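FAQ: What does a multi-protein file look like?

Like this. Sequence, then tokens, then the next protein.
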Amino acid sequence: MIIDRKNAPSLLDSDFDSVPRPDSAVVSRYGVSDLEIRFQKRAETLSELSVVAIPYSASVIYKDRYIFAAAIECEDLRAMAPLMGIPLKELQADYGTKGFYGEKRIMLYGNGERESLGPYFGKEEDEEVISFLLSLVLDSFDEIEDPVRLSN
């Protein structure tokens, strides 16, 4: 997904329940060119109706507009069970897990679209996840400069 920062619509106006809130659970901030990138851990979604958990995400702000997000997310089986009218244990069996979450997936939000890049198989150590999400952001904006960490 390539984003035209000047013409990209705001994610705050999107129809996707699972978009991470840009001001939620910000751990660190980075700057590259005219973009601010916010690394988040366990960010809340824009909608309270979402059945998605977001262990990690990177939200991109351009001129005070929230225009892009790269997220590692998974379905929250505890939230899904009552909505589907299915016991949690049955849903866990359907997903092949004893835990409360489905498989971690890589999702991109921007240009009014949601794109899945498939499962996330990387380590869940902050430095590795930050590096991975920043590379997704840089690729999506066709940036070649390295991001610089900003003071919180």
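And here is the next protein:
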Amino acid sequence: MPAHISQELADLARLARDGGLDLSQVSLRVTADLLMSTPLPPQGDLAAFAEMALALIPRIDEATAVILARKLAGWPHSPPPVLAALADRGGAVLAELVRHGMPLSPTEIEQFAELGDAPTRVALAARTDLTGTAVLMLISLGSRSLDLALIGNPRAPLPRAAVEMLIGRARTDPAYQPGLLARDDLSNLERAPLFLRAGAERRLAILDSLMAREALHPGERLPLVPNATFQGWLAVAGEDRDGAFGAIAAHLGSGSGLAHAIARDPSRELAALSLIASGVSVEEATRFLIRLGDEAAHSVERIFALVALMRMVKPAVAFRLVMQIVGMSGAPSQRQGRHQPAMDPSGTPARTGSARPEAQPAMSEMLGRIGPRRERG
């Protein structure tokens, strides 16, 4: 007899001797353990066990019923009437059956998703045979515990609508982000809103996907921020960060959502991406980030990491990425759709702003120029 069964029998015997256990419950659990230790139990033994279980299950205590449910739920030889009798008790017993693999049809799974109580739904979210419809039903409830259980279940299918809802919640609840990034059934474009939490390899894959999307479906070009406007941002960056972030968000056609998101990001990566999306050069963007005077500005390592990030993205891709991160439309609102010829200088108005240099200066040279300016400003 397996060691764990022997230990359980010893515990049950001790309780029986002390008068703390109904022997009918002991008999039911012992019989179940003996049957389950047999590779192919005889049909006669299964029938006898079913008869005894159906008589006792309505009377046994909750703890014993939960133990039986856990044992019998996924056992291939469990008599269906016994499982049904346990399920009729509902509550924790039913939740254990659902969690541990009680056979359910797709229709039954969806009925539990729609009508089940909270413990049963959480148990359902851990199953490997969920349907897409059941997943949508569970996610539509807006329950954080259900969402996290589904995200952590790699066999749970995530329809597109479910992914959109989960990504939307992940923007405001960081607990969602690691699990969504770890799933292998999400595309890199779907992961783009989670860019700030992604590792280096995942970031490169997300940027590659965004660049490919931009190449196939170019977005409308944003106007470069005028130099005078940028100088205004720079002037207030050290004294009124929120005001500076609000001005950047306004230039990108966003409202307070982007400004608040930039302010909440202590890494300043969202601020850096927003500056590049506005057409600011890497050097000028670095000046802005240093002028903020916050924790990131005082870390040489962080500034170098921000410079590396800004050099990886073009303005159009940065704009797409920023809008994905904050959950807003990727269409810039400033442009009116008026055609401006790119090749005929006679018909193209002069455009002010900071042009991106073809070759970036060395970091030490750039910081050398930034330092004195900051002291003057």
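Q: Is there any per-entry metadata?
A: Some entries carry free-text notes. For the entry above: Confidence is low (pLDDT under 50) at residues 331-377.
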